[in-house]
Amino acid sequence: MSDSRNAYYDRIAPNHLAPLWTRLKSLVPKEPTPVGVPHRWAYSEVRPHVLESADHISAKEAERRVLILENPALAGSSQITQTLYAGLQLIMPGEVAPAHRHTQSALRFIVEGSGAYTAVDGEKTMMQPGDFVITPSWTWHHHGHDGEPGKAGPMVWLDGLDIPLTHFFGSTFREDHADEEASVIRPTGDALARYGSGLLPVGWRNGSLNSPVFNYPYARTREALHALTRAGAPDAHAGHLMRYINPADGGWAMPTMATMIRLLPAGFATLPYRGSDSTVFIAVEGQGELRVAGQRFELTPHDIVVVPGWMAYTLHASQDLVLFSYSDRVAQEKLGFFREQRLPA
Ligand code: GTQ
To answer: pLDDT tens digits, residue range 239-271?
Structure first.
């Protein structure tokens, strides 16, 4: 490079100016360069560490007793992808994780246990394995376990939040509730009864960006997935892939995080697929494998795998495999960024 150019760059630097032309190709690249690496957390390895956290801190002291799933290439960032956070939260019988609210949206995908609830915006829902539960932005929420201490078992779920996305926008706000528990003003099951059966109260309008159904019970989801296997062939690139919807408008259930669940029949393998959304998967039932970038990640129940955006992957089922996944696809779609490719074998 010419000395006069370098001298020029040096002269403009004190004015906090920089030439675009030396950076343009990396600032506006041809296609996404993955941030983070593909990774698998085997639940059998992680589970003892999650359970041990109860020996060290209470849910009350921790506020949320969670082990963060951090992308190995983003150590220290609390990120599983560029835009998303993931963690495994533990609540023990008799405990309460105190009420707070924040601009970050949260999803829960229930892993194991029974007897615990989450209370969101005045309604309590009992959590069962496989349920998908929404905590919309800025809604009061606390969690608790009604089981008898020493008798009932622990309860664990996967937390998915848009923490990095909110941080990027600089729109992070939180508030602690004056009381440990926010008041519950509607009966358990109210939202599901009103909004969760393909029916809506006449005259009702959704005042939220989220689905009014805040717990999608696994019993119903599972039945729908199995009915699909009798209805037709799975999609070659995705299997029997369904998205959780907001019944008010048919859109995604949440405004920033797209949530989906799929069933791959035993023996089925998908063709390669990639999307511009980095995706977090959790195996629910069955057995199989996710292959990406020459790596093979085994999928057994509750194993978690992250696949960075724009990396092609395939899924293989050795037994009927149910997989839940979430990504920032909904945000990318709204902003006009989202791209996907269905690739040949
Ligand atoms: O349950 O409210 O994993 O606020 C991280 C932050 C869970 C929660 C997390 C949170 C929560």
So the answer is: 999 999 999 999 999 999 999 999 999 999 999
Phi-psi region of 155 (alpha: psi -120 to 50; beta: other; left: phi over 0): beta
∠ Cα 58 326 60 (to 5°): 10
Mutate to test the pocket of ligand 1, among 60, 85, 89, 180 (most ligand atoms within 8 A of CB): 89
Q: Is 122 left (phi over 0), alpha (psi -120 to 50) or beta?
A: left
For a substitution probing ligand 1, which of 50, 60, 66, 117 has the most ligand atoms within 8 Å of its CB? Answer: 66
Return d(Cα 198, Cα 122) in angstroms, integer: 23
What is the Å distance from ligand 1's center to 149 Cα? 23
Give the number of other Cβ atoms within 10 Å of residue 318's Cβ. 16
Percent of the chain with pLDDT over 70: 100
At 2, the pLDDT band (50, 70, 90 cuts) reads: confident
Confidence of residue 1 (pLDDT cuts 50, 70, 90): low
pLDDT value for 77: 97
CB crowding 304-317: b at 16 or more within 10 Å, else e: bbbbbbbbbbbbbb
Pocket of ligand 1 (CB under 6 A): 64, 66, 87, 89, 102, 106, 141, 159, 161
Are 273 and 339 in contact by the 8 Å Cβ rule? The answer is no
pLDDT, the chain, mean: 97
Does residue 34 surpass a pLDDT of 90? no
What CA–CA distance (Å, rounded) separates 244 from 255? 12
Q: Sheet harboring 106-112: ordered strands across?
A: 66-68, 85-91, 155-161, 106-112, 132-135, 215-216
Q: Which two tokens stand for residue 122?
A: 């005045």
